[in-house]
Amino acid sequence: MTSLEELRKINARCIHCRACQYAYSNEPDREGADEEYTGMMLSCPGGNFYGWEGYFNSGRMWMARAFLEGDLKPSQEMLEVIEACTTCGLCAEQCTNYIDTVDIIEELRAAIIESGVEPLSRHKVIGDRVLDTEMRNPYHDPRSERTAWYDGELDNKDAKIAYYVGCTGAYRQQGVARHTTSILRKLDVDFTILTDEVCCGSPILRTGQKAIFNTVMNENLELFKDFDLLVFSCAGCFRTFKLDYPKQSGKPLPFKVAHTLDIVYDLITEGKLKIEKPYNKKVTWHDPCHTIRHIGLSIERKILEESKNWLLDSRKATKAKEAWYERPREVIRAIPGMDFVEMYRIKGNSFCCGAGGGVKTQFRDMANDTARERIKEAASTGAEVLLTSCPFCITNFNDAVKALKKEEEETGKDLSAVGSKIEVVELLELMDQLLD
Amino acid sequence: MVEYNKVTDEVVKKLAAICGEKYVTDSEPLRYSYMAKGIMGLEAVLPEVVIRPANTEEVRKILMVANDNLSPVTPAAGGLSGGFALPAIEPGGILMDMTRMNKMEVDTENRVMIVEPGVRCGDAWRIFKKRWPDWAPPIPDGAPPGATILGDAIERGFSLVTGRYGPQADMIMGLEVVLPSGEMFKTGSWALDGAKAFYRWGVGPNPDGLFLGSQGSMGIITKAAVKIVPHPHFKTIVAYGGDSWEHIVEPAWEIGKYEMGISDNTVMVQGGNWPLVMTRWPKSNVPLDYKFYEKIGIDEYWMNSEVWAHSQEELDFTLKRIDEIYKDYEVKQKTTCKQQQLHPKQIASRLKKPNLIAVPYGLYEAGFLFITFYCPWLESARMMEEYCAAMENYGFPPTMWVASIDHARQAIVMPILCFDSSEPDIYEKIREFNLETTKSFLDKGWVNYRPDPFVHAPETFIRAKEYYRMLVKFRKVLDPNFILHPGRLAIPWGSVTDLPNPLEGE
Fold first, then answer.
1. CB atoms within 10 A of CB B209
2. Do B29 and A82 touch (CB under 8 A)?
3. I need a labelling partner for B233 at 20 to 30 A (CA). Which of A212, B105, B287, B433 fits?
4. How deeply is A192 buried, as exposed, middle or buried, from its count of CB atoms within 10 A (0-12, 13-18, 19+)?
5. Spatial distance between the Cα atoms of A402 and A399, rounded to a whole number of angstroms
6. If contacts are CB pairs under 8 Å, which of residues 293-332 in chain A contact chain B?
7. Helix boundaries (H) for B142-235
8. Beta bridge partners of B106
9. Of A39, A98, A308, the CB nearest to B122
10. CB atoms within 10 A of CB A312
11. Tens-place pLDDT, residues A196-242
12. Cα(A42)–Cα(A54) distance, rounded to whole angstroms?
């Protein structure tokens, strides 16, 4: 179990330099296409939207310090500010003092709630639903229908690999779940799906509701403990199992975990998989924070934790992180016919979709504004398709595009330059279409 | 002692009427987000209200409300390398967050840029890269992207070309200032209606110096006109080592004397010692014996020269002359000043602006403080020796940085106190260290570059009574109710120190 108290000394490294407010905060001469997308860019979703220092990570770190020192008392008002953060981790990527900003923000949220402050209204609703044994999902759907979308064999006790579907795949984006099972079959992965699977707890942990999170984490760990490998299609579930379960349970995972795209990546780079069907479109890629930046940062931190000489090993750690950031690109480049163009803010400096950390649930205007900024950046590349692989990014981007289309209808303006015509596509769905 | 009033709900309403409710907050969590202790100062208190004005007119109205209510006012924008130049101090009052005032105008014909307080270095650099690539924005060297141009300039901070042109304040061509009375004026030629900011001494005696070095203490600066200089693209860094402070300081002075020559190309000269490298990493994950640094080719002391030139030929000539000067010095002093072998990545990293070079000292033990002193260049070796000895005596690693100002006329000497901020009584220990060294240095005639309001300012003005008397007179004219931040001026005296007021009884 981690706690804010354990992070006290890491939090104390913050000197309030505000580099964390910027993407590419240490790359002033990075070349971009124009004045807007060049060099360093203010890129904190919360800070950009609200403007106050307290909505930037730099301000939040000092609120955390005041809380730890007993100067700032927990309150609903404080929780409102602390929750308006997508926990995208762009700030952690910038921090040359290696402050685990996402951990500090999440633990601060938990500490506020543990002190007796009620979770924010919409966060409480999803927490209550996940706690309800008849649901165990944030969508208010019956648990009995969790696997209703699936026509294959369930609960195969002989399988060594399980596909952890997650609540969004099971209840809202069944198409992604179906495409994932199709991909796994095409790749000859012998897997099963378990009817007793429950919410991974990601949105619950992100919003500080740790007691509920622990309940579902323990149920999942018990349920899947005898499997060798768990496969995922949801970025949030994958990050939660891979990073949060070991941290919060205090034990290593009893199984391996892999995102479906990791399996595809491994087969492509080992030369065992070749995509033959072309995809003749101009495409750009959005890095989901959960599977790209968060995992990349954890790889870097692990190397540094084990290092006795950071002076020598920090470059090695950075290289390992960057290699992780490159993985989805290698999958994309393996697709024939595609005209792949990168956005300006990519990899560790990728700008968030705006949905994460409980923001889409509680702060819809901020979520929408952030998605629109990212859609605009995608459109600036001239791409027809915005490719990503995260259910929350997909939903939030689609909502933003819909809002742009509606605005076009209402005003008669052509908003294609800011993304009204862009098509948002889940890479897993595309991969299924391209694999034989 | 000046008696201030609390910021009441009624005052908050008046402030909201000026800027709109969206831009005024008395939220306790948000007020805490503006705190910072360490790096530039250890004292900070919670402001009672934070307000984000959009323009000079709003600043003017806010100051009038503050003056009527006797509420202290602290202006802040992007801060410095860390923290704010002057965080709010007792009794809190109104913190004016100037980040919304972020307009800039660039006049390449007259080689001047006009900035509002919220123009951040990262944004200015980005815009210059595309729009004016042959001009360098007047940003500080060594500050992160969120630091502001105006903050650096009025702090008399570093520029990219301080080694040649002196502190950034020397590049100021005019200021727009608002006083607590609501009066607003411009300085220099800018004071004349419709005139450009092209002549600093303008239409009469120039009062700029009163408003620089202690921002917001005499008036709030809402615009500054700052010179811009060409940004030639032939640039590099060379570094030479030495076995003592003296042996890196003296050859840099020899180079500095070549004004109107290679010294003008040497835009930045800065040096340090082994601990300056070591303390950028966690104490528990870095070799603490210096053999390691020797092994990787870093001399115990070294000085970097950053050279800018308009052509490769000019760059090569400058480097050749620098090398010759070092070689002559070696012969003359019978010492060795080995040229350090810099990896291209090290050179690229040092040429990078803005940068995060000042940030990682927080890693060593989760806390650090910059203290800054000025002295004549050749005296800096003696100051650094004394400083390092004092740091070791107090149990701090002797992390030291030095840089030349204006062709090695002055030195800025900056010990970096790396400490564990969770250690009991650490701040008291730092204060004792700071007080001891400050007294010693002031007695030697050395002065602070960025005086700490609580230690340096009172200790300085005790020794400069006549000057302090004049400052107080000016302050009484400009801010009769003393609502502006005492800043680095120790006015009012009792707000920053318990020491006897040098003007007591007058």
1. 11
2. yes
3. B105
4. middle
5. 5
6. 304, 307-311, 314
7. 149-154, 162-165, 208-211
8. B113
9. A39
10. 14
11. 999 999 999 999 999 999 999 999 999 999 999 999 999 999 999 99
12. 15
Q: How far is CA B488 from CA A214, B227, B459, B491, in A?
A: 52, 25, 11, 8
Q: Which of B82, B287, B356 has its CB closest to that of A26? A: B356
**Residue B40 in this model has a pLDDT that exceeds 70:** no
Query: Is CATH 2.40.10 the classification given to domain A1-118?
Result: no
Q: B354-389 burial string, b = 16+ CB within 10 Å, else e?
A: bbbbbbbbbbbbbbbbbbbbbbebebbbbbbeebbe
| Structural domain harbouring B65 | 9-100
Question: Quick one: pLDDT at residue A262?
Answer: 97
Q: Kindly state whether A371 is in contact with chain B, defined as any CB-CB distance less than 8 angstroms.
A: no
The pair of three-digit structure tokens given for residue A50, joined into one six-digit string: 């609200």
For the segment(s) A274-436, the CATH number from 3.40.1350, 1.10.357, 1.20.1050, 3.40.50 is: 1.20.1050
- Give the span between the Cα atoms of B15 and A312, in whole angstroms: 53
Which residues of chain B have a CB within 8 Å of the CB of A72?
28-29, 32
Residues A258-299 have pLDDT tens digits of: 999 999 999 999 999 999 999 999 999 999 999 999 999 999
* Closest chain A residue to the Cα of B345, Cα to Cα: A315
Using a CB-CB cut-off of 8 Å, the residues of chain A touching B83 are: 15-16
Q: What is the pLDDT of residues A185-197, one digit of tens each?
A: 999 999 999 999 9
Average pLDDT over residues B202-227: 92
Residues carrying CATH 1.20.1050, chain A: 274-436
Q: Crossing angle for the helix pair A210-224 and A121-131, nearest 10 degrees?
A: 30
Domain edge (last residue) among B202, B230, B258: B230
Q: Shortest CB distance from B28 goes to which of A12, A15, A72?
A: A72
| Token pair of A54 as six digits | 């307290």
| Same domain for B182 and B38 | no
CA distance B60 to chain A (A): 21
> Residue A187's closest CA among A98, A294, A64, A270?
A270
Please name the residues between 32 and 61 in chain A that touch chain B, using a CB distance below 8 Å. Answer: 34-35, 38-42, 51-54, 56, 58-60
List the structure tokens of B496: 């920053």
